[in-house]
Amino acid sequence: MTHFDKLFINGKIHTMEDSSSVYSVMGIRDGKFAYVGNDSSFDADEIVDLQGRTVIPGMADAHMHMYAYCQNLVAVDLSNVRSIKELIKVMKAMADETPEGLWVKGVNFDQTLFDEKRMPNRHDLDKISVKHPITVRRVCLHAIVVNTKGLEMAGVGVGYTPEGGGVVELEDDDKPNGVLREQCTQVIDNVIKDPLKDEKM
After folding, report:
1. How confident is the model at residue 61, as a pLDDT?
2. Which residues of the chain fall short of a pLDDT of 50?
């Protein structure tokens, strides 16, 4: 007689092969699905009565940010940076290799891991370079920090109101401090020349 480590019976087991592929019995052996059908006359170390419960295959999250992943391949990975001082250092190394006027981009920083326990701002990024527009994107993808040159190129100054929503953080004199959150990050993305836009994915 066929033996299973675990046998599930009396279930509604959907294999998703087609609309009618619903079975009542499922057998597991060595951690793998070894049987799906309607015959429950098997020997098993453990029998689980599903009592009519539904079983479906595991779902995969399709929220992949594939485009952002591709963009990140041409940016400085800041995931291991542990201070604003270190962020400036590694971004400056990239700026030194980048022709003046071209964007220097960093991704995946997390200020909660920084010694300073604060967000960087435009003044921090200005220490990297004032001849390059610079942006660093937070690990969550919902916030970016831009240096003064980058803000100027995007037209983000005193009195700027993001049309699509979001938050532009301000200094005491109402000048943007370089931190943009949510939808208004798009205004920066719109002025960055993105080579991926010329390719089909």
Report:
1. 62
2. 200-201
What pairs with residue 191 in β-bridges? none
Q: Which CATH superfamily is domain 3-55 in?
A: Urease, subunit C, domain 1 (2.30.40.10)
Give buried/exposed letters for 158-188 (b at 16+ CB in 10 A, else e): eebebeeebebeeeeeebbbbbbbeebbbbb
pLDDT given for residue 19 in this prediction: 67
Lookup result for tokens 């891991």: 113
Pairing, β 167-170 against β 176-181: antiparallel
Spatial neighbors of 66 by CB under 8 A, at least 6 apart, are: 201
Residue limits of CATH 2.30.40.10 in the chain: 3-55
Residue 198 carries which DSSP code?
G
Tally of CB atoms within 10 A around 96 = 11
Reduced to 3 states (helix: H, G, I; strand: E, B; else coil), residue 135 is strand
- The segment(s) of the chain belonging to CATH 3.10.310.70 are 66-198
Please, what's the b/e burial string for 17-47 (b: 16 or more CB within 10 A of its CB; e: otherwise)?
eeeeebbbbbbbbeeeebbbeeebebebeee
Pairing of the two strands 43-49 and 54-55: unpaired
Q: Are strands 32-37 and 167-170 parallel, antiparallel or unpaired?
A: unpaired
Task: Look at domain 66-198 and name its CATH class.
Answer: alpha beta
